[in-house]
Here is the input.
Amino acid sequence: MKLDMTGGCMPVLVLMVAVLTVTGAVPVARLRRALPDARGCHIAQFKSLSPQELQAFKRAKDALEESLLLKDSKCRSRLFPRTWDLRQLQVTERPVVLEAELALTLKVLEAAADADSALVDVLDQPLHTLHHILSQLRACIQPQLTAGSRPRGRLHHWLHRLQEAPKKESPGCLEASVTFNLFRLLTRDLKCVASGDLCV
Here is the structure.
């Protein structure tokens, strides 16, 4: 996907892929074929977050890690292994995985805030930022409710992994995985999608 460096979306190749969401729904998605005046597709603005936003995420991550120490969860597997790198996917597949990754992150962090009132304030701004990023990303992905081609290979494996995580992982281990992946999500995965085909 080629993104306009000024924030607009250039025409992109349409790839029909199934989006496996954390709720288990399997809508089919394609990247929007954007015209010069297409509205809402401004993902390029997230190639880097502001220092203030990153600091808010740092405070949230520190608070989450302290909370996890009290829970003493014993986790044997990694939801996001060290080999997790969106550059391994086709350019047009990356936003689909990022959408699922963001949706799962939001679901887990919101559950953490609901379960621990001490996390509510420190998570407020990061959750707001993540919701904004997800809404902007979805403006560049247009759901299609028709039967299209199913995802294959690494795309299928990664989407399936994200979909199954809430069923296979304990809440504590899921929270730990999302917490430790938070800055990779913000500084690598998001940056890669925002950079389009310049991310190699």
In short: The chain has five helices and three strands. The radius of gyration is 17 Å. Strands lie at 17-18, 28-31, 141-144.
